[in-house]
Design goal:
The chain has 13 helices and 51 strands. By secondary structure, it is α+β, with helices and mostly antiparallel strands. The N and C termini lie far apart (99 Å).
């Protein structure tokens, strides 16, 4: 036997010196003497793509993550050659490419160093699979912090952490456990009040090391594929997140009911149990808009079927639930039971739509129905077929939403919990193994589901939720944080995960309120509800193995707390809907960690608990038992305690007393918060007033209210109402200015203006420069004004 030890221990390889370069439009190619090519593409002045190949040519350029509808363009691009480097300059940044080894560094226009290669790009030949293990290492600056990476159950600041991205069914995961369900290889760096982002668009198993192995080095690598990453310049974190979200895409607006409260369990059956649950919500006056059916609604866990013993007439049941305001959401998994008498299986088999092993046979795995085959959702023909399967569920039966689970993909009774790595995928004309397709399998399932639901629920808007996702999945689906546990630690984890996902492009997320595994105490459930109503997706879900987890499964006090906070969410629906509008229009995350809100305040860099809900509400959950208060950080500015209307000056950590039926909630001074009356479900009530809570500030503040028909697509034709609201406060004056855009006429005719924190007694009121008598607008000592909605400026003068 001949061994080649020099080959065996060859180790890392590096680019050699640049031999030539070409500049073609928005791209510049640098060619080295050892056949490495670096392609630098300027997508925007603040968005640069770096793509490396080691074989002398590039493979087909394809990505599931990038939103191809986005148009890119830069204002300025200049390439100059210096003695030891090439300099690329845009109107925002400068990039130096070293001639000796392709190492690069990026500066702002004042020559401040933002990001610098350490070893830079290097690779290791993968003799087991072919291709390369591709690697990148960069210097970490003093005090540099790292955020993002999506679904990570760890501290908000990732400094000192190593994380792994491989979508995994991780039942009852714990703090710091890796990997989890979602893969978002995007992080944000922050140092010296400058933020930047790195999106490593590689669907193989990837790793990120934030100065764990080496104190001053950050690195990322993948087990295959290309070194292909995007650099996003801020300098504000808001700019980085918005640019990344534009790059990977935004969802369409959901129907308003989707932002209500949802109830779920594994499982509610038979039909009588479902109706018992929904009736109890109405009896207790706890608002709820959606009821979920888990896998037991199916016939032997066969997707797109019904167990007629449990649900003899699903169409009738769904219609009756709808009459009571409940929308029905059902689960659909990827595993299709191998059963020659099962119509979905027969179709998939006849049309050759299932994933195959390398040697030809269909990939077989055990999931809930038993032995299953699995559709190859990376095949556009299969996605189209899958979308068509939803006709009966949506069009005929009346289901309003679909929930994709087990789509990491999860497989039972195998060591790696998923497909064998030799499984083949079409990958939209770029055939590959499961090593490359694994991390995007769940997203492509959700994509196919979304197109099916959208087709058959039209002219209404679709609702899809997924457990597994890759960057860009937010274009098709909402998500939740998977099989969490009913512990105080998991309440802490849920708070961080949803914040992290929000700044990682996936804004429409939430956790299983109360915990999926195990059983919460009444106190833990109440504290989780108090947090969960401030998450974009709000759903209680639990494993039936551990007891009941409806609000009435606890005591009267917990019922009252649940009613209070869920009712508050329903009051805040116009505020939440406006948050979502800003997310889809401008890429602004709905939840904002304090470091996103004020990166220049170093006190925010390691805060985990506090977050900004929308733009103007500060929330801090209670995360431990028996608490009568907590210490929390109030960001800079002025903030009103929501419960007491007491004004606090921020930029400091303070103790806040809380009761069991409260958590610390603050409203930014100057804000105008819109509120609806409490409804038991969206659309239950007709009302003639929109309440505007106006929080006085000596200064100026902008607010907004977005409304439309709450469902359907007329908003895309301009039939929406977008109010820009401005408060201007002075020592003895308050001015409220209003400007409306859009053709939608809201059904109410009046604003009920609630003045909070007004430091003077009102003596004079003007509306559009006309003095108004107090009795004409129902102004009283409680500082409420009831005014017609058609005004541009309200002017209050006092003494």
């Amino acid at each position: 036997m001949i061994t080649n030890t020099s080959l065996e221990y060859k180790g890392d390889l590096y680019p050699s010196k640049i031999a030539s370069y070409e500049h073609e439009g928005d791209s510049i190619f640098f060619n080295t003497t050892n056949k490495v090519i670096l392609k630098v593409t300027i997508l925007r002045d603040s968005l640069i793509r770096f793509r490396f190949t080691t074989k002398g040519y590039f493979s087909n350029d394809f990505s599931y993550a990038i939103d191809k509808t986005q148009l890119h363009g830069y204002n300025f691009l200049e390439l100059t050659e210096e003695e030891t480097y090439f300099l690329i300059r845009t109107s925002k940044v400068k990039c130096k490419i070293q001639k000796a080894d392709l190492r690069l560094s990026i500066y702002d226009l004042n020559d401040f160093l933002i990001l610098e290669d350490e070893l830079g790009f290097h690779w290791e030949e993968s003799y087991e699979y072919g291709g390369n293990i591709v690697k990148m290492s960069k210097f970490s600056k003093d005090g540099e912090c790292y955020y993002g990476l999506g679904d990570k159950a760890t501290q908000m600041n990732l400094k000192g952490k190593r994380v792994e991205n491989f979508a995994t069914d991780q039942y009852a995961y714990q703090k710091d456990q890796e990997p989890l369900y979602k893969v978002v290889p995007f992080y944000i760096g922050l140092h010296n009040k400058q933020s930047y982002g790195i999106f490593f668009d590689n669907t193989f198993r990837t790793f990120f090391d934030f100065c764990q192995e080496r104190r001053n080095v950050t690195s990322f690598w993948a087990e295959g594929g290309e070194m292909n990453y995007y650099f996003v310049y801020g300098p504000q974190m808001q700019d980085v997140v918005t640019t990344y979200t534009d790059l990977t895409g935004k969802p369409e607006l959901p129907p308003l009911w989707v932002l209500g409260y949802h109830q779920c369990k594994w499982s509610y059956y038979p039909e009588s149990k479902v109706k018992e649950i929904t009736s109890k919500f109405r009896e207790l006056k706890i608002p709820c808009d959606a009821i979920y059916l888990d896998i037991d609604y199916m016939d032997g866990f066969r997707c797109f079927t019904w167990n007629k013993d449990f649900f003899p007439d699903p169409k009738k049941m769904v219609a009756e639930l709808a009459e009571d305001g409940f929308k029905t959401v059902v689960i659909i998994d990827p595993g299709i039971k191998i059963d020659k008498d099962y119509w979905v299986y027969k179709e998939g088999l006849e049309k050759d739509y299932f994933c195959k092993r390398a040697d030809g046979p269909y990939m077989k795995g055990k999931v809930w129905p038993g032995e299953c085959n699995f559709p190859d959702y990376t095949n556009p023909v299969v996605r189209e077929w899958w979308a068509g399967l939803f006709k009966e569920l949506i069009s005929d039966i009346g289901v309003k939403g679909v929930w994709n689970d087990m789509n990491e993909p999860a497989v039972m009774e195998v060591p790696n919990k998923t497909f064998p790595m030799d499984v083949r995928h079409v990958y939209d004309g770029n055939p590959c193994s499961h090593r490359k397709a694994h991390n995007i399998y769940g997203t492509q399932m959700a994509r196919a589901t979304y197109h099916g639901v959208k087709r058959f629920v039209y002219p209404k808007r679709p609702f899809v939720i997924t457990r597994s996702a890759y960057a860009g999945a937010q274009r098709y689906t909402s998500s939740w944080t998977g099989d969490n546990v009913a512990t105080w630690e998991h309440l802490w984890i849920a708070n961080i995960q949803v914040q992290r996902l929000s700044i990682s492009g996936m804004g429409f997320t939430g956790s299983d309120i109360g915990g999926f595994a195990e059983q919460p105490t009444g106190e833990l459930y109440a504290r989780w509800i108090q947090l969960g109503v401030f998450h974009p997706f709000c759903r209680t879900h639990s494993s039936g193995d551990h007891g009941n987890q409806e609000p009435w499964a606890f005591d009267e006090e917990v019922i009252n707390i649940t009613r209070k906070f869920v009712s508050l969410r329903y009051q805040l629906l116009p505020y939440l809907y406006t948050m979502f509008w800003q997310y889809i229009e401008e890429g602004i995350p709905m939840l904002k960690p304090l470091v996103y809100y004020d990166q220049d305040d170093t006190q925010t860099h390691y805060r985990n608990d506090e977050f900004i809900f929308g733009n103007q509400i500060l929330v801090c959950p209670i995360l431990e038992p028996n608490a009568v208060g907590r210490r929390m950080y109030i960001p800079r500015g002025e903030w009103y305690n929501y419960w007491t209307n007491e004004l606090f000056v921020g930029g400091r950590e303070i103790w806040i007393d809380t009761k069991f039926d409260e958590i610390p909630v603050f409203v930014k001074a100057g804000a105008i918060i819109p509120k609806y009356p409490v409804q038991q479900y969206v659309g239950e009530l007709e009302f003639d007033e929109l309440t505007l809570d106006v929080y006085y500030k000596n200064g100026k503040e902008q607010s907004a209210v977005y409304e439309d028909a709450q469902d359907g697509y007329d908003y895309k034709k301009g039939r929406y109402s977008h109010l820009s609201l401005r408060t201007i406060g002075k020592e003895k004056e308050l001015i409220i200015q209003l400007h409306k855009e859009g053709k939608y006429d809201t059904p109410y005719s009046k604003y009920k203006i609630n003045l909070i924190g007004l430091p003077f007694q009102v003596t004079e009121i003007e509306i559009d420069n006309e003095k108004i008598a107090f009795d004409k607008i129902n102004f009283d000592a409680n500082k409420f004004l009831l005014v017609d909605k058609e005004f541009n400026e309200l002017h209050l003068v006092g003494e």
